[in-house]
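Lab notebook, bench 4. The sequencing result for the construct came back, and we need a structural model before the next group meeting so we can plan mutations. Quick request posted to the team channel:

Model the 3D structure of this chain.
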Amino acid sequence: MLDFVLHLDQHLLSLVEHHGVWVYGLIFAVIFCETGLIIMPFLPGDSLLFITGAIAGSGHLDPWTAGTVIAMAALVGDNLNYWIGRLYGTRLFNERSRWLRREHLARTEAFYAHHGGKMVMLARFVPLVRTFAPFVAGIGHMPWVVFTGFSLLGALLWTGILVSLGYFLGNVPLLRDHLEVTILGVAVVMALPVVLRLLRRRK
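Done. Here's the predicted structure in token form:
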């Protein structure tokens, strides 16, 4: 698994060459699990989108099909995670818990009532956070229609930006030869606006 994540570009291209369109199903499964299962935030997200775009740019995948598959996986995964949090998450909060107390649940509900839409959309661009945000939105009983709307918007922006970056820049020799650094740089750029906003609010 570690080798697959560290050399994702090589492995994904090999899978495309050997299995063709079935790779779309693999991409869907990885994004769905990373987004929808709270125990799998370690799966590749941003890097998978960038590399998928790069492979599409080299002519091995269709960018529109890949983008549609990724956006659908992100939306469906978000909804699964939301409903797990909504149906079962509140059971984690009780008076005996040191960290998850009832007053924390009340604060969560109040936060998502005022800032839930922005949180769901912006969290899509931050690794780890995007896995937990839908779950917490469900715990906070954010209205499902509102959640789905912002989740869809975030999924479309996330997919469009990262797949496009991979498509147009992923095959530039300098970036391709230093792919790990490139992907890390993209992740930092994606997360930077959210981090700066949080720092301003804290200040």
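Residues 2-202 form one domain.
Will bring this to the meeting.
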